[in-house]
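INTERNAL TRANSFER SHEET
From: sequence group
To: structure group
Subject: DNA starvation/stationary phase protection protein

Please process the attached sequence and return the structure record in the designated field. Keep the field labels unchanged so the import script can parse them.
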Amino acid sequence: MASPPQTAEIQGKGARDDEKIDISISTDQRGAVAEALKVALADSYALYFKTLGVHWNVTGAGFYGIHKLTDAQYNELHQAADAIAERIRALGHVAPASFAEFRELSCVDVDTPHKTTPEMLKELVADNEAVAKRMLDASDVAEDNDDKFTEDMLIARIGVHEENAWMLRATIA
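Return from structure group:
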């Protein structure tokens, strides 16, 4: 049995499912929010990947504490990325799922070569701060489109990234 053909929209940028969805926000509103969430997902996944790299490669006198801190942070980021992707799907859109898409959408540079532990931590501070600001932008899109659930989720993400930046700054102080 042949599978049904996909529409060009499903295959392209801004892809969405063809199923009928009747939730608290309109189709157009869902599209705007899903696009903002795709950026949030890319940032979360890129930061997850980068934090995991720091976790694996940290060295020095503070190794154990930094290793444990980054372990907690990358595990939390993994869960957050999953929740964001699931929200994109609940809105009827396809979540980005490739390194190429994440690289295109994210502000986090994951292509940097290995650096010293203090340099890596300084980058994670800057990345968490940048991601927090972009989560604010995405929460504004959710607010403008009356998506209270997504707005609340993204506001919570802002707090997590600001706390992560603070903990990393305190670690290298």
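Handover comment: Residues 24-172 form a domain with the Ferritin fold (CATH 1.20.1260.10). The chain has one domain: 24-172.
Transfer complete.
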